[in-house]
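Handout, section B. The chain below has 119 residues.
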Amino acid sequence: MLETAAPFLKSKKLRLRLGKYLVLLQRYVLTKSYLPMLLEFMLLDILDSLAPRLTRFKSLEEVDTLLKAVRHEEIHNQGKNSLEILYRKPESLPKETKRPQDFQSQLEGMMGAPASKGS
């Protein structure tokens, strides 16, 4: 479905939404302890065809740092550079200052899901 719809996402706003979705999809996959090889290859193929410049993340901390930078850009600069931030390498982003659990609560709040009652 993503490969079919992607060519029609030409505006900057729609590309930003697709980019955020692909980053969140990578985040979701990183939370899984096991991913069948076939699904992993399908995901890599989709990422290569839809967003070849998008970083392939190795840890949740990298994803959270990127999402925090994008959210900061949206709040403080009306999202003018959000798309450029989305395609940056993780090492070029500011280091994380909050714990990942704090960001998880913020992310759940943005997505409309109830925040987990963790530690």
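Note. The radius of gyration is 15 Å. Compare this with the example in section A.
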